[in-house]
User: Fold Cytochrome c6 from Capillimicrobium parvum.
Amino acid sequence: MSEPRPPRSLADRRVSQPAAKNLDARRRRRRRAARWALLAVALLAGAYGTAAFAQGSSGGQGGGGATAAFAQGSSGGQGGGGATAAFAQGSSGGGVGGATATNAPITGRGDVAAGRRLFLSGCASCHGDDARGIANRAPNLHGAGAQAADFYLRTGRMPLSEPDDQPVRAPVQYTEREIRQLVAYVGSLGGPPIPRVDPAAGDLARGREVFTSNCAGCHQIVARGGIVTGATAPPLQDATPTQIAESVRTGPYLMPNFSERQISDADLDSVVRYVLWTRAPDNAGGWGIGNIGPIPEGMVAWLIAIVALIGVARLIGERTP
Ligand code: HEC
Ligand code: HEC
Assistant:
């Protein structure tokens, strides 16, 4: 037999209280709960903001955290050892994608002869039968080399449809075999071979430095392209490592070409590595709010905290004794 339970004093008595008073107590309880919830949100957001700030500062070795984090995100990136250090640290994890294989053509006599035939039907109308160029139509290709031919053909820039157009990346017009033959023919007229490039051997921080001072003015620091007088500097998301090297050495259209004295082969490896890196930069960490980085994320968190605190203040102010 179970013992009779003692009367549930508090709750039972409440039920018997007048309805108005009961309602008042419930409302007070609800308000108290809301206050605690808001306080919890505020504390959480505050903690997140602080953590984000801390994360930003851990990236830099010297100097203030904020400076280091900003340097990491900023486009300047050249000054201050701190900035470079932060970048080098942040970037060391980035892998290098993309094959490095340079398909150096096997230049046989047959290839050159076949290439010449293709040239006469597809290119001579602008470049002339002897490939010495036609005034106001197309330049002389003697000395352009396999380097330029490979770049212009594999990016679909040639054959151009109008001599006055800016050559832009387009669907490739020739088969792999035909490209090899055309490249062999143009290469046989003299000029630099297809450059070899090894982005894995490059240094990311150095690549960014060289890119910042030589390329970013036209292509932007993130390699997303831009406008220069008389031309469009394309985004660099599609170019293969070899094509990047070819463009740097050739200087297509209004882009200047860079000799080995200006950008050494080692620096070119680094630049290519940097360009590949811009396609999938390291995650800056934190929330998925667009990966805008620790400092702005911290600001978002503080904003939430401020709104929550205002809510708390209002609730407290509302309370009537
Ligand atoms: C004066 C502005 C300028 C500078 C400086 C410059 N470029 Fe360019 N770049 C261009 C223009 C314009 C084109 C488009 C050329 C064309 O239409 O054929 C181009 C094309 C390219 C392409 C071909 C992209 C594609 O998808 O076909 C690559 C790669 C490239 N540049 C890399 C570089 C690198 C690396 C540097 C620095 C070493 C650099 N550029 C410096 C203006 C510039
Ligand atoms: C409608 C005219 C036209 C046709 C057709 C044409 N080209 Fe060109 N080509 C040009 C012009 C204009 C330039 C200069 C563009 C520039 O400065 O980037 C050029 C530049 C080039 C260059 C770079 C030269 C250099 O010194 O860097 C190569 C290589 C080239 N063409 C190869 C070819 C080949 C191969 C074909 C045939 C498959 C071809 N072109 C068809 C007009 C033409």
The chain has two domains: 33-93+283-318, 109-277. The longest strand covers residues 226-228. Residues 19-58 form the longest helix (40 residues).
